[in-house]
Structures are given as C-alpha cells and as structure tokens.
Write a structure and sequence with these properties.
Number of strands: 13
CATH superfamily: Acyl-CoA thioesterase, double hotdog domain
CATH architecture: Beta Barrel
Strand content: 35-45%
Number of domains: 1
Shape: globular
Largest sheet: 13 strands, antiparallel
Distance between the termini: 43 Å
Structural class: mainly beta
Number of helices: 5
Radius of gyration: 18 Å
Order of helices and strands: HEEHEEEEEEHHEHEEEE
Length: 272
C-alpha cells in the first residue's frame, strides 16, 4: 500500500486466512460519530465475496444487516457459497468482532447477460454538476470528507424544519468519491448509504440514528461503470414513514446520461 492508494481501496484491504476466511479492521477514514459509516461496512462485506476464488460474475444484489456496534478492533469475516446455480451464486457472509456477530450479509452474483432491456424510470432534472454548490463538510463526521456532495435539494441542514412542522425527506444531489476514483461495485455499495440523516433534514435537529438493514440492487454492468469512470453520479433518496423508532429510506444512483446504476432500500433506527 502506498501514499497514493485511494482511501476506499485502503479501507477494503483484507487479509486472507484461508478459503473464505478474512481478517481486517474498519478504517478510521470512514468513521461516523459513534462508529463506522454503514456504507463502508457494506463495501467490506461485498469485498469478501469479490475476493473469494469461487466467485463467478458480478454483484447483483446485497442485503447487509448491521447487528451490533462495530469498533476499531480487528474483525474476522467468513464467506460461504450457499448455492451455486447456473445463473446465480448465493453467498452468506458473517463479520465477527469481540466474540460476537457484528454484521451478516447475503449477496447474489452472476454473469452479465445481453438480453432485452427497458428502463421506464428516468433521473430527476438536475443543474450541471459544476454549477451546484459544494456541500461543506466542516465540523462533520469523517466519512463525509470521503465524498464530493453537491445538493440540488434536501441538504441535511434544514433550519426551518421541526418535529411540529417536518420538512421534506427528499434529497437530490451530485456525488462522487473524494478524491475522485473510478466507479466500481465497491464504491457503489458504499455510496448507496451516503445519504445524510433523514431526521436532520426532516426535523432540523440531530438524533442518533443507525442503519439496521440495507439492500442494494446493482443494475449496472461492468461496462456501464467503466463508462462512468470518475465522473459524478446523481443520487436521490426519500422516506415514506417515520414510526416507532424506525424509518425506511429508498435511494437511487444514476449516471449523468440517465443510466440507472443501483437502487437501495434500508431500515433506519433512531433514538427518541
């Protein structure tokens, strides 16, 4: 590893301890207020499958369940091929730390096939990336410095919102890795969680929050990602309901030319 290694690549380095057995530690460069950014955990779990010698094809779907608080201590990760079919492989991943299970994950991989294609959805209208103000990360948690974010709407700072008069939960922004890095499935898995707290946006006040479970569907092929390169992508997120200490969140990531790259859905816990 050199000084020119991108922070994301440095954070995803795993030590191989046998087939399907890995070791590592969550990088401080992607830390949140009280633990790691959920997206980097998802990317680490995916990396375990990507590094497995039996993997065929690319990621198609991932569900990451964040079971316990993850610390800077070393972790162990077990990756098992649960089912090897003709069209898909189904993987199970466990991340263990301090004597217990800290995260579990199911991942589906498969080859990219040329078939009939149709995309009814389209990205929202967006101003040019260069004409959108850069979001200031001053005073914010470390992982936000790993992204160049430019909000068209839904910046997390909403001084007019309150619990009595909630603001909109919708976000639209340009986003890319900081420093710029060619888009791949690792960065897409992390970026699917890079939408800053809905509660801060909707209520105008901070509340402790954490992703409980995050599912991402990877709709982009390797060629689609190569076409994006280091260019920024469009991100959208919204929430349907806050209730009983949880809320949902749906996100989309689009290329600048309108190709849907990934769709995500998650459940978030918040402290009241």
């Amino acid at each position: 590893m050199t000084d020119t290694t991108h922070p994301l690549d440095a954070a995803l380095v795993l030590e191989t301890n046998g087939e399907g057995l890995y070791g590592g530690a969550i990088a401080q460069s992607y830390w949140n207020i009280a633990g790691p950014f959920g997206g980097i955990i998802a990317a680490v779990l995916l990396r375990g499958v990507m590094d497995h010698p039996a993997r065929r094809g690319r990621p198609i779907a991932q569900t990451a369940n964040l079971c316990a608080a993850i610390t800077p201590d070393p972790f162990e990760m077990r990756v098992r091929l649960a089912r090897d079919g003709r069209s898909t492989q189904h993987w199970l991943v466990e991340l263990m730390q301090n004597g217990g299970v800290a995260a579990t994950c199911s991942i589906v991989t498969g080859p990219t096939r040329e078939t009939w294609a149709h995309q009814p959805a389209s990205p929202p209208p967006m101003p040019a990336y260069g004409g959108t103000a850069v979001f200031s990360r001053e005073g914010r948690s470390g992982w936000t410095t790993r992204y160049d974010m430019r909000f068209e709407r839904g910046s997390p700072v909403n001084e007019s919102a309150s619990a009595e008069k909630p603001g909109s939960a919708e976000t639209r922004l340009w986003i890319r890795d900081e420093p710029a890095r060619p888009l791949d499935y690792d960065s897409l898995a992390a970026m699917a969680d890079a939408f800053i707290l809905r509660l801060l946006q909707v209520r105008g006040a901070f509340a402790p929050s954490a992703t409980v479970t995050l599912t991402t569907y990877f709709l982009a092929s390797e060629a689609d990602l190569a076409a994006v390169g280091t260019a920024p992508v469009i991100g959208t997120a919204d929430t349907r309901a806050f209730a009983h200490g949880f809320h949902d969140q749906s996100g989309e990531l689009w290329s600048a030319d309108g190709k849907m790259l990934a769709v995500s859905h998650q459940l978030v816990w918040f402290k009241e």
